[in-house]
Write a structure and sequence with these properties.
Elements (H helix, E strand, L loop, with lengths): L1 H18 L4 H25 L10 E2 L2 E2 L2 H18 L5 H19 L2 H6 L10 H18 L9 H5 L3 H27 L3 H6 L4 H9 L7 H6 L5 H29 L7 H23 L1
Antiparallel strand pairs: 1-2
């Protein structure tokens, strides 16, 4: 009885918050995105563990075809399908959203590869991919909850007419520009999560904009002279507050996506070349 009541309540809430508000395609995108990311990480971790009964990397000769390639194809199919399919075919639009979500997960899961233009999937640099997935999931979740970026809302402006409409429009544009400016400042200060989540909760933008920048951020390089009071305060804050939070975030990432602690292939090759050169030099010295 209780299970039926809870099920009915969840169904009613889903109908009111998702279906009736037109967010069903976005919901299907979100589910497809998260499921694909989890399955992809399970797949690559089993491949990394060299499990005998599991799949292997997709290769054509010596060419390793990364799953970002399949993601780009799926995003193209889903995106074009979403534009081309008439709105009356809601089922096909939902299918296009699912395909797009699958492709987006595959692409963002190798975001670090695109960023660095080399295979850094299991290295420290590869954590950028997990960060990108987490950010995309958080922003999509905010949209599903009904949040609107930088205070955007059509009802506030459309509710008035005449001179009041002009004033409301000007105030509305100024408000959005202020929010966007605060977002830019927060991002330049190295506060990525604050800047992005703040697009939906504007008060966070102003908190991030007025607080100290992170030591390695563009804002700190431009405004904080090394050794200055602000720079020392930023370093202390980074060590006391940010570092523990980052360690916690990395722990969560490793639980979900696996450890990213390998030496990059190009760096490993450089080390091997240097060791070989040193060995040859040492051999030559001994021969002399």
């Amino acid at each position: 009885m209780v299970v039926n009541q809870v099920g009915g309540l969840m169904e009613d809430m889903f109908a009111r918050r998702i279906v009736e508000t037109g967010r069903l395609p976005l919901f299907c995108f979100f589910v497809a995105f998260m499921v694909t990311f989890v399955l992809t990480r399970v797949n690559v971790r089993l491949i990394r563990a060299d499990v005998r009964w599991w799949f292997k990397n997709v290769k054509t000769g010596d060419l390793h075809i990364h799953h970002v390639v399949f993601g780009v194809v799926l995003m193209l199919l889903g995106g074009v399908g979403g534009f081309a399919i008439p709105d009356v075919y809601s089922g096909l639009n939902i299918a296009a959203a699912v395909v797009f979500g699958m492709g987006a997960a595959l692409v963002l899961d190798e975001f670090a590869l695109i960023l660095h233009l080399r295979d850094v999937y299991w290295t420290e640099e590869g954590r950028a991919s997990v960060d990108a997935v987490f950010i995309a999931a958080a922003l999509t979740g905010m949209l599903l909850l009904g949040a609107r970026p930088v205070g955007w809302s059509d009802a506030d402006v459309l509710a008035v007419r005449g001179t009041q409409l002009l004033i409301a429009t000007i105030v509305y544009i100024v408000w959005m520009m202020l929010n966007l400016g605060a977002a830019v400042v927060a991002l330049l200060k190295g506060k990525i999560w604050t800047g992005l989540i703040g697009l939906f909760i504007p008060v966070l933008l102003y908190v991030g904009a007025v607080r100290l920048a992170r030591p390695g951020s563009p804002w700190a390089r431009w405004r904080y002279r090394p050794g200055s009071r602000k720079y020392r305060r930023a370093v202390r804050h980074e060590e006391r507050v940010r570092r523990p939070l980052i360690r916690g975030k990395i722990w969560v990432q490793e639980v979900i996506a696996g450890r990213h602690d390998l030496i990059p292939l190009d760096r490993l090759q450089r080390h091997r070349t240097r060791d070989d050169d040193q060995e040859k030099t040492g051999s030559g010295t001994r021969l002399r």
